[in-house]
Each structure stands twice: as C-alpha cells, then as structure tokens.
Design a protein that fits this description.
Blueprint (H helix, E strand, L loop, with lengths): L34 H8 L1 H11 L4 H22 L11 E5 L5 H14 L8 E4 L12 H12 L3 E4 L15 H14 L5 E6 L1 H10 L1 H6 L2 E5 L4 H15 L2 E2 L1 H14 L8 H22 L5 H5 E2 L2 H4 L15
Parallel strand pairs: 1-4, 1-5, 2-3, 3-4, 6-7
Helix pairs in contact: 2-3, 2-4, 5-6, 9-10, 9-11
Length: 324
C-alpha cells in the first residue's frame, strides 16, 4: 500500500503498511515440521553464510545473530501450531567503534527478518541526527515522521544515536524526535525495527538520560575492534574483490602499516584498511604511469612494498599523527 490518505496510521501520524499475504493454515497438534526445510524456505542459512563471507571475526556478534534467528524461527513454527506467544521485541543497539561492521550486520538483519516474516520489505534506512532533528519549532516532527515512514516495513538504523539528545542545549529539538521515535517503537513494533548505533560509553549515557528508550531495546550487541590478524585478513578480502595481489614482502609491510596505524587517532578498523588500500592503488597507478615502461598483467595486479612505504604512517615519528 502506498502512503496516503487511505493508509492506516498510528496516533503519531506514521503510516503503517497492510500485509497482503494470507495467514498460513494452522497445523494439527499431532503434525511435525522439518526444521531444516523451514530454514531453507526462509533463507536463514544463506543470509548467515553471507555474513560470514562479508565479515572477518566478530564471532560474538555472529553468535548473537544466529541465536536471534533461531528464536524467531522457533516462534514461527509455534505460530503454525497455533501456540500463542507475544511477538518478540526486536529493537536493537549496536555498540562499537567505526568500521566494525555494524551497518553490514544491520543490512543482513533486515533481510533475515523479512525472510522470517517479521518485516514486510526488509530494507534498511540509515540516518543520523541531521535527518531527524529540525533547526526551528515545528521542523522536527515532520522530518522524523518522514524518516519513519520511509523505514516502515524495514529497519531504521540510527548511527551515533546519542546525538539525538543534547541536554546542554536548551533550544535543542532532539527530545521531540526521541518522543516520536519512542511511540513508534512501542506502537508499531510489527511494522518497523529500530537499531541504534554508536560508541558504547556514549550509548550508555544516552540510555541513562532516556530510560524509556533503554526499556524498548531488547538486544544489545557489542562489536569489538579487530585484531591485527583480522585486519590483515580484511585486507586480503578487499584485495581479492578488487583483483589486486600482494607480494610476500608487501604483505609484511602492510601488516606493519596496520600495526602502526591502529595506534593513531581516527583509526576506523575496516574503513582504515579500505582507505589504506585505496591510497596504495593510487601510488601503484602513479608509479606505473610515471615509469612509462611496458607493463604486463602481473604488474597491474601487484601492489609493491613501496606503495605503502611512501605513507607517512611508516615515516619518521614526527609525522605519525598524519593519516596517509
């Protein structure tokens, strides 16, 4: 159903979509169901396997996602037998530093919830404070409701959610956005899943200041920073996707680069790995073009040590706070 005058609405004015799917017939009490077949029909394994391929490490995160998937699958089977139970609360909080895979997991979670029948569309709408909070009186409510309307049927991912609340500013309108969000999280749980994300310490402070929000979050999942070995493995995955290769010597230089880089300001885990590889590609391209010699396929594939050694990260200590 399109959003419009005929769409059903909650009391806060955010449109909810109707489901066109007929309910499944209830099974008899002596029937049995094949759990593996149910997993295949909902594409759970395909989605979770994709998460394993896309993300290195993060075993505690993946374990929690698998547990949530198992709970929802069993609830789905209980419903088929007519066993009454309340719909589980699915709003979540993802905490951790930048580049630890929070958005990727949110995307997979949206697909998972759609496959299990808990969301109609299974899309992800990712926003920050600026897209929800206005600059003047009467501006915040329409902005927040527009974002929520876009997210209906899917997952609303609010990055750095603690910036919604700025108690030090008496003229801040973030509290209005929070109040609208709280109503939707409570009254339209069947239409929308909200995932709040940000640094753990700041999210803890946010929940202390907004106990109503904390009570609506069922799953708190922490995303740890990657280890050096995991960062190197992420680099290998990114290289393979872009059809580049390291020599053995380059791999050692890259490892040293990451070891130094993660001790510097603004390190962003997988994002910093990606940025480092992008700069190495630039240096490789400039090196080949400047040389002006004939090149073969291997030359185009290969990243050399010098493509990282030119970085200030591996230069003398006076420059080590500069990321290049």
């Amino acid at each position: 159903m399109r959003f419009g005058a005929t769409a059903p609405e909650s009391t806060n004015g955010v449109a909810a979509e109707e489901s066109d799917s007929p309910p499944e017939p209830q099974l008899s009490s002596d029937a049995t169901v094949d759990v593996n077949e149910e997993r295949r029909s909902t594409a759970i394994d395909e989605i979770l396997d994709g998460l394993d391929r896309e993300l290195v490490g993060l075993e505690p995160v993946k374990t929690r996602i698998r547990e949530i998937a198992a709970l929802l699958l069993i609830d789905r089977l209980r419903n088929r037998f007519g066993i009454e139970s309340t719909r589980p609360t699915l709003h979540m909080c993802f905490t951790g530093g930048p580049g630890t895979g929070k958005t990727t997991v949110a995307l997979r979670m949206a697909k998972l919830l759609k496959g299990l029948g808990y969301l109609q569309k299974g899309h992800l709408v990712s926003v920050t404070r600026d897209e929800m909070v206005g600059q003047y009186i009467g501006h915040t409510a329409p902005k927040t409701k527009e974002v929520l309307a876009r997210a209906v049927g899917g997952v609303l991912f609010i990055d750095e959610a603690y910036y919604l609340h700025r108690p030090e500013n008496e003229r801040d309108y973030g509290q209005e956005a929070i109040e609208i969000l709280l109503q939707v999280m409570e009254n339209q749980r069947e239409d929308l899943v909200v995932i709040l994300a940000g640094y753990k310490d700041r999210m803890d402070q946010f929940f202390q200041s907004n106990p109503g929000m904390s009570s609506r979050i069922a799953h708190h999942i922490d995303f740890p920073d990657y280890t050096l070995d995991e960062l190197c493995a992420i680099g290998d995955l990114m290289l393979a996707l872009q059809s580049y290769e390291f020599t053995a010597e380059t791999r050692e230089v890259f490892r040293e680069y990451l070891d130094r880089r993660r001790e510097q300001p603004r390190f962003a885990n997988a994002r910093s790995v990606r940025n480092a590889l992008e700069r190495a590609r630039l240096r490789q391209a400039n090196r080949l073009v400047t040389a002006g010699a004939r090149v073969g396929r291997d030359d185009l594939l290969r990243i050399e040590p010098e493509d990282f050694l030119a970085s200030r990260v591996l230069a003398p200590a006076s420059n080590e706070n500069k990321e290049t």
